[in-house]
Amino acid sequence: MTPISLLAHAQAAIILAAIAALSLKLRFLDPKGVAASIVIGYIVIVLGGLSYFTILLAFFIISSAVTRLRVRIIGELSIDKDWIRSWRNVLANGLAPTLTILISRLLPCDERIMAAGYLGAVGTAFADTLATEIGLFYRGKPRLITSFEKVEKGTPGAVSSHGYLGCIMALLITAAISWILGAAPPHLAIMLIPVGIIGTTIDSVLGAGIQGKYRCRECGKIVENLHHCEQPAEHISGLKWINTHMVNLISTSIGALLLAAVAALL
Question: What is the model's pTM?
Fold first, then answer.
């Protein structure tokens, strides 16, 4: 493992301090979410470099802006989705790419495969986030990916044309930024798109299948949270210990492994 320069530490400190302050001011993250993002950002900057961090930062800024737009148009309370993200959201989407960089620096690893794993994880996280946010603008009822029955918006495993449009938009943005910054050659940036779609689809399948789902005792809605309408919800299906954050972590890890495997074969 090569020594880390003092400049990298200084860059990380200055950049992350500015982002933390803005995230709190704009209410993109809560305080614990900011703390988690500082740890992830520090590892990515000092071990991966500013190019990799810029890709992660683009995901954070764009997804936060789209979430804010969704809240402004649809409303905060009409859909059971987070507005101000917590440390759980940060780790669910940021742990896989961070571990990809960390493991590659601790163990002998081809730089090309590490880059692919990182981009596969970030791309899947970004694609799933925009699929969720833009999918909420769909005027009709989405369909459950496993049975194609119509369900309410926000139901785990629900998909729509708007959702996949958001997914593809996120992957195109990630691929373009990765290529422009030199983090990925053109063929790998292109392969990120189908891999990200697969990762997002896996996320939906896991959400519909093994993710814990609950029925609110007050309003009767099917929700993904343990509590709703300020009271405990009734568990109706899935595994209680598999929540939306665990599903995100699994799908981003799969995205990392898939694109790393593609890079190894090319």
Answer: 0.93
